Amino acid sequence: MALQVDGEVVSMRRVGAYNLMSVTAPGIPELTKPGHFVALSVGGPTSANLLRRAFSVYKVSERGLYGGTIEIVFAAHGPGTQWMSTLQRGDALNIVGPLGKPFALPRESVNCLLVGGGYGSAPLTMLADSLQERGCRVDMVLGAATADKLFAVLESRRTASSVTVTTDNGSSGVQGRVTDVLDEVVGRTGAEVIYACGPMGMLAAVAKYAEANALYSQCAVEEAMACGIGVCMTCVLPVIGDDGKTRLVRSCIEGPVFRGDRVRWDDVHTIPSDAVGAPKVGG
Q1: Is 234 left (phi over 0), alpha (psi -120 to 50) or beta?
Q2: Full-model pTM
């Protein structure tokens, strides 16, 4: 069940290349699970930015000095997030959440590998805690283009059994991409399940690696979401269902978490000709 609530900014601080914001959100923290996201109004009450912005939830607190709070991390790229970066303590925000389908947790304790790219790795912190509560071993691989675009490395090292860092330019950890170290990490940790969050290209590579090595994977996709509640159809993905048929599904409702082997990564942003309801050529 999603709620629409008025909240206030509790804090805003820089973390590397990103902004980390904490905001009160009455009733939302208690409902939020790892992988959920929230949609925030941006630009203020007179803004021309009619569409909300979707953000993964990094942390929640059900209690505290300011009541229930959520934390999100974002990069100030477009007008909406640039406006958000100027917010100060006490500023108002309207929030809808929690939204989407969260990660599915294993019924038994298994060795889990969590793979994150840039600030897309934000949901992994809550996920790691939930997995460890179930007795799972948790190891992590965190990657980014440069060291300042890594997120939550120190915190991850305090909780995970091991953390392997990669950067494209070698400014921190192993030079290369997260997929370059998967063989070594999986062999060392005995990982049976891979959870991944980050850019779509990274998710595709991780999911394909998992499938090729008979590992189960779940991926939290990063698709542009205009409404976040399944109305606008801008975030559709080609996903294979239990019946083996491909359908264009809404990542904001059926996702953002999908089984890695069910997403047709090579056909993202297209309508596969064999998808249910696809237009027939020459028809």
Answers
A1: alpha
A2: 0.93
